[in-house]
């Protein structure tokens, strides 16, 4: 079989060159299109369902949230297993699908089943799907370097400006914020004053809720013109909260400021974020969408960061804490170095032992063509270019070197013997 292939190749050199050109073109296209990452994605094909019900213990979360969701999510096509975890105020359900299931098809099927399962949950609870990223999707971390700004101001800048601006980048699943203080209005009610003024607690809650919204009116006609009327009621400052009426005491209006202390403070924190022991920082984590090219995504993120910096307050700058592109480029450079060294080694061995340049070229051209074929197969089967796959290519180059040297030396020896036999016959004549 091999002899026939060699014979056909010798008699059809034009077609062989056409095949070589097609391999080069296809290999280059495969290298460009194949997603590049530093680490292989070994995470399971899963969809995460997150439900928050603050103030409830894990037992209640398990009985009233986790169990109804798990029991009603059974029967989804291509479902492999369902895992769940209940903790204080939170419930996580991990719906794991088979490897051949498309992740976005799986998310749509889970969302369809959630619409049915939600009616078995307590009123007011709305489960939500986790981001369409994987466990190795954290490709870029950054912090905000801003001398003179407090942590609350930086966290507000991150949550309300930087986060939304970065999420526009194609390929980002989520931008997770960390560090700092999340601002909130806090109303510390004095229970003794509630009793003194005879104001129920629910009246205070309802009054704050009613006064934190806009209301629409009708049309007021005047001089043949119609004017739309609406009431502006959204809370914008501490004084707006203090002036909210909650009841009457002896015909005197009772306001929030009469029964409570209103202040601007931060949400409860369970930890801090420190960078290199230099103090607390505020920043964000860019999570890559499933199946995206990590190297190209990081390039797009860096370009977007430069645009965002132009609109930030004076003195605020981005500081990169983690950039996976360094590891990706290192893996690519390792492969280039390995291929280059092995091509030079083959050339040196063949030229030193055979003293024949054309024989060396046969073994040398064998290496890049086989590597290009490998990238074409990787792109065909959906294998990303990562540290493991590129390392395997580099190791396989060593086998190509051995076979190339052995086959070239054997062919050169056979041709030499034939030439010697012909010369002997000429001497006999």
- The portion of residues assigned to helices is 40-55%
CATH topology assignment of the largest domain:
Multidrug efflux transporter AcrB transmembrane fold
Query: How would you sum up the global shape?
Result: elongated
Please give the radius of gyration in angstroms.
34 Å
SS elements, strand count? 14
Going across the major beta sheet, what is the strand order? Answer: 2-3-1-4
Q: What structural class do you assign from the helix and strand content?
A: alpha+beta
How far apart the termini lie comes to 37 Å
CATH superfamily of the largest domain: Multidrug efflux transporter AcrB transmembrane domain
**What value does the average pLDDT take?**
84
Q: Which CATH top level class of the largest domain fits? A: Mainly Alpha
What's the tally of helices?
13
What share of the residues does DSSP label as strand, in percent? 15-25%
* Number of self-contained structural domains: 4
**Low-pLDDT segments, ≥5 res:** none
Specify the CATH architecture of the largest domain. Answer: Up-down Bundle
Largest sheet: 4 strands, antiparallel
The helix/strand series, from N terminus to C terminus, equals: HHEHEEHEEHEEHHEEHEEHEEHEHHH
